């Protein structure tokens, strides 16, 4: 029995399976996450010629008008877009959570479809409707009415509001469903009318959820590249400035692109810290002893509530529908002839089949890795509560906050050195998709694993399974739903990725979103619409799968 | 089934000592209960035997094999969990067969083992059910069947009944004891429920702050607790403050409790008396002369059916609770009524007035 004595140890650490896994995970995160971000930091703080520490880049960003204007614009559309999303999302959540609204599933489904379609598709669809040569613009022009322009800040805010409101809606709705009705009854009993009750009791109680939804909107708005790039027309935000700085600095050190990107990142982190600080003072434990009741509205109130709810989701869905519709129109260059046909799809298959192929190849490869690492990382976070797993848990927040542009520039500077060059390969795109979408998989799997009692694994070990075998035979089957939902979410977001791939792609590694973006810029609206439709259908199929598999369907998308 | 020998086990988490110098000897086939409040180290000790924690020092032997350094999956000890830990993705049959398959048993052996285990736990008809189709009590039977299907050297049970409702808990308690005795299963049982411990065990080991306070038969634990903690934790008890007199005697009111008492350097002393050993003497009546009686006043009387509980205070403010046969006179007592609490000398013990103060031997 001596041979079996004590698990093998190495410098006092026992080298069991999970210790090795911890080391592997730390190594992967160090290379794919920390190193690129650190290299971006270094580029922004060091002069490429002299190699000395400098604040010159930051001084430029905060003194030159061009950058200050960009900063101001980013903050302006960020705040306004978030506010718009809240103004649409909170009432929608309240109406659907508390009143009898027909077609609630339909409303939620549309909101989720809006969520998973890339925002720049929306931007470009609004141009097709309200742009200089848009269908609706032309229609009103024909009867002599001038329509407001869709370009610039107004258009961007409109797109952000309509695109990001589902985050606020879904978060708030979940929270509203778990507010103990006794609180509202108590407010009424103490003399509040319905409106006072909402503003004095209900809204403060769901504020944590509203603010979490809002902060997601804000972070995504700041990082969003496609929408301001397509709708901006001279209205520059930090993300478009960073991208054009990157293309103009191509070949040299992308120091201004990097510095601007880091300012964007700082804004997101700052916003998150403020929100966390506010939330830390408001923690409401609530027992759901008295469930909220669904109230039936009558008369004009009922009609107004229905009109609002259906109106919001249908208008938000409109761009997607327009894109799908136009994909079936015949084109002659940038002009739609008005006839129906499949020529756009033929052109896609003829000119850009590799975009479709690449998108699937990259996203699938990334998702396979994400699934494997999600299982392992969530186990480390949930079951191995030590300092290292705590660090991994915190690191899983980072990809949410780092804009794709920053990440991509970090990858270029890290993985393109004299003797080691991954730029232009499919691998670098797979790597960045993996690290940027890993948190979706980890979060979903972690939530699932927290519901699996640790005693189940102990029982398996007690019955003779090694820890690794217990994980594979007992834990993995039990976290499979979370793993699949997380993988689907990663897949949806990976296949829609634009900001980082736009920087990393070469002609051989073009993906669908990149091809759509390039086609829009080239005026190839037909091709863009056909590709967008393909992308939307893929996302839609995944959404359907998530709906089939997830317990808490809507929360899976947050 | 085998005997268990635990020698000098120590375990600490940082500065917190979870187990200090644990020495336990468990006879083969006996039911050994670790009893104590939460945080006393009983679960830590059980999990150390199972191999889910490793001790800082000390040895654990089962039969003649030393197991303290084996990984958990090689120890061949059965375990029943508080939350059942029945695999939700496997049927009852597959749950019970899990350990046998793990041991590469043949098909026939597995089938025989599963059927035998299910027969013992009266689960034969549930063999193809999934866990979510079973009640809590049935799930725990599956947990039990699964654990003994692999013929473990010793059975470890971590509060297996505490998630069940009261009625079922009592039923399953006697069934567990029946199976344990039929199979001659050496069992280490963890609980915080003292009634459960007394009802089931051959030996009860009371733990507190990582230290064994007393290990003895249930009767000895209840009748002759070795320190104040055990006297207080197991069953209800009254502690009445008293002092050692300058001549070395101990008295309670005007009564002599002990003529001579064991040496101690703790000045304060407590006299313990169980509620059921106290009788209530109404105003105007006299206690028997061979009994100690102390005057007090009633605070509250509660009638709970089989018996009545009289809560009162003595002249020094010590709270005294007596459990007596309900009668119209007792139930007529009101707060403030003067009464006397009477009890026999042989039923009381003297303890040092400290958390785990020793019981002092007295000469009457």
Report what the structure shows.
The complex is a heterodimer of chains A (558) and B (364). Chain A contains 24 helices and 6 strands. Chain A is mostly helical. Chain A has 2 domains: 14-43 and 350-558, MetI-like (MetI-like fold); 58-327, MetI-like fold (Orthogonal Bundle). In chain A, the strands form 3 sheets. Chain A has a two-stranded antiparallel ribbon with strand order 1-2. The longest helix of chain A has 34 residues, at 65-98. The radius of gyration of chain A is 25 Å and the shape is globular. Residues 1-13 of chain A have low confidence and may be disordered. The mean pLDDT of chain B is 91. Chain B has helices spanning 42-50, 92-102, 107-120, 136-149, 166-183, 194-200, 218-223, 228-233, 328-331, and strands at residues 4-13, 16-26, 31-35, 57-62, 65-66, 78-80, 155-158, 187-191, 203-208, 211-216, 238-244, 250-252, 255-258, 260-261, 268-273, 279-281, 291-303, 308-314, 319-324, 338-344, 349-352, 359-360, 362-363. Chain B has 364 residues and is α+β, with helices and mostly antiparallel strands. Chain B is elongated and about 80 Å long. Chain B contains 9 helices and 23 strands. In chain B, strands 6-7-8-3-9-10 form a 6-stranded mixed sheet, with helices on both faces. Chain B has 2 domains: 4-229, Rossmann fold, CATH 3.40.50; 236-363, OB fold (Dihydrolipoamide Acetyltransferase, E2P). The A-B interface holds A 1, 4-7, 453, 455-456, 458-467, 470, 474, 477-478 and B 50-52, 65-66, 69-79, 81-85, 87-89, 98-99, 102-103, 143, 146-147, 150.
CATH topology of the largest domain in chain B: Rossmann fold
Oligomeric state, counting identical vs distinct chains:
heterodimer
Count the domains of chain B. 2
Question: For the residues shown, what is the average pLDDT of chain A?
Answer: 84
At the fold tier of CATH, the topology name of the largest domain in chain A is MetI-like fold
- Order of strands in the sheet with the most strands of chain A? 1-2
**Which CATH top level class of the largest domain in chain B fits?**
Alpha Beta
Unreliable residue runs of chain B? none
Termini gap of chain A: 52 Å
Helix fraction bin of chain A: over 70%
Separate helix tally of chain A: 24
CATH superfamily annotation of the largest domain in chain A: MetI-like
Please provide the count of β strands of chain B.
23
Broad structural category of chain A? mainly alpha
Largest interface: chains, residues each = A-B, 22 and 32 residues
CATH architecture of the largest domain in chain A, please?
Orthogonal Bundle
Rg of chain A over CA atoms, rounded to whole Å, is: 25 Å
